[in-house]
């Protein structure tokens, strides 16, 4: 089969579980050509340590994408700076991690890849290398020259997007402006339509404060910022409502009325989603000129080499990328 998508899969932090997760899913055949972007020596070492018998083939961009046989890893090579020890972080390999992301980014922008899927990186060790790095989301947005993107996590039954991402809690309120919220909701609506096939996405918007501000007694952000923007989109015919108190919106009888929930900050929405579906959740960056999905977990240094790392979230991220590539308009 030659008429299929070619999807980049970055292996993430070399000392973490990312490389071995990439190896483990080689035993599952997808209707696409997965290309692992990593040091092939690292991949072979991890395969040997886990007793995995795999065949490694370097990707050939002069040929059409093909579905590799089971047990075959297609890869795009990137050399480690220094040899990686399982479970032991080394800031000298921060450059390697960013190089893998840059190759995936460049390949997506050039049309070599239909999407990119990312295994977990370790933000702390990258910053320890004196490289300012707040996360995949911000790195990819800057690299694609995109002013605004939206972070969304999804399980099979729940989608939660974020108005703000990796900010200290004390900075959240000032970061939510009418202009920024308009951008976020517009990206959310357009992505739901173009990448998820929803002609009229139903959006539930959380308030920022407890009880959604309780008519201004617990804060005015709902009155001054959030509600005016919701009303603006309603006038445009969009199916959006709120601001809802988060503690009552995230209950089953309310959630069934929405295709996606917009939370105001990271720990307002994501603990609920991860409690409901950790290990099956997918991190999606909306607003990029390409599809990007990722796992919902970290590098799990304590699990490296034990064979206990679970592939569920990476498997879900790959399947989500394929589904979005199929539906993209």
Question: Based on helices, strands and strand pairing, what is the structural class?
Answer: alpha/beta
Order of SSEs: EHEHEEHEHHEEHHEHEHHEHEEH
Q: How many domains would you count in the coordinates?
A: 2
CATH architecture of the largest domain: 3-Layer(aba) Sandwich
CATH H-tier superfamily of the largest domain: Isopropylmalate Dehydrogenase
Mean pLDDT: 94
Report the end-to-end length measured between terminal Cα atoms. Answer: 23 Å
Write a brief caption for the model.
With 329 residues, this protein is an alpha/beta fold. It is 37% helix and 18% strand.
Please characterize this protein's 3D structure:
With 329 residues, the protein is an alpha/beta fold. It folds into 2 domains: 1-146 and 288-301 and 315-329, Isopropylmalate Dehydrogenase (3-Layer(aba) Sandwich), CATH 3.40.718; 148-285, Isopropylmalate Dehydrogenase. Helices cover 37% and strands 18% of the residues. It has helices at 18-24, 40-49, 94-109, 123-128, 136-143, 172-175, 178-196, 221-235, 246-249, 252-255, 266-277, 312-327, and strands at 5-10, 32-38, 55-58, 72-77, 115-118, 150-154, 159-162, 202-206, 239-244, 260-263, 282-286, 291-294. Strand 6 (150-154) and strand 7 form a beta hairpin.
């Amino acid at each position: 089969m030659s008429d299929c998508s070619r999807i980049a899969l970055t292996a993430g932090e070399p000392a973490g579980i990312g490389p071995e997760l990439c190896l483990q899913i080689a035993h599952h055949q997808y209707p696409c050509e997965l290309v692992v972007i990593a040091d092939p020596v690292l991949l072979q070492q991890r395969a040997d340590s886990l007793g995995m018998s795999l065949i490694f083939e370097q990707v050939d961009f002069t040929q059409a994408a093909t579905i590799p046989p089971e047990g075959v890893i297609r890869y795009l090579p990137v050399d480690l700076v220094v040899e990686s020890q399982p479970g032991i972080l080394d800031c000298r390999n921060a450059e390697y991690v960013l190089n893998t992301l840059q190759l995936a980014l460049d390949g997506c922008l050039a049309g070599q890849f239909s999407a990119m899927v990312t295994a977990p990186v370790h933000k702390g060790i990258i910053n320890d290398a004196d490289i300012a790095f707040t996360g995949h989301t911000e790195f990819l947005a800057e690299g694609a020259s995109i002013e605004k993107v939206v972070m969304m996590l999804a399980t099979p039954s729940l989608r939660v997007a974020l108005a703000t991402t990796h900010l200290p809690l004390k900075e959240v309120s000032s970061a939510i402006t009418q202009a920024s919220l308009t951008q976020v909701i517009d990206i959310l609506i357009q992505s739901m339509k173009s990448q998820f096939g929803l002609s009229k996405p139903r959006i539930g918007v959380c308030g920022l404060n407890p009880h959604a501000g309780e008519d201004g007694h617990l804060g005015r952000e709902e009155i001054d910022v959030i509600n005016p923007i919701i009303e603006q989109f309603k006038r445009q015919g969009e199916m959006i409502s709120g601001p809802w108190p988060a503690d009552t919106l995230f209950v089953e009888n309310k959630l069934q009325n929405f295709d996606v929930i917009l939370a105001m900050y990271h720990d307002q929405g994501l603990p609920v989603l991860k409690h409901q579906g950790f290990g099956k959740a997918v991190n999606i960056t909306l607003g990029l000129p390409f599809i990007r999905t990722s796992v919902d977990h970290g590098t799990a240094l304590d699990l490296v080499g034990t064979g206990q790392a679970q592939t569920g979230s990476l498997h879900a991220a790959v399947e989500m990328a394929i589904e979005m590539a199929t539906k993209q308009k």
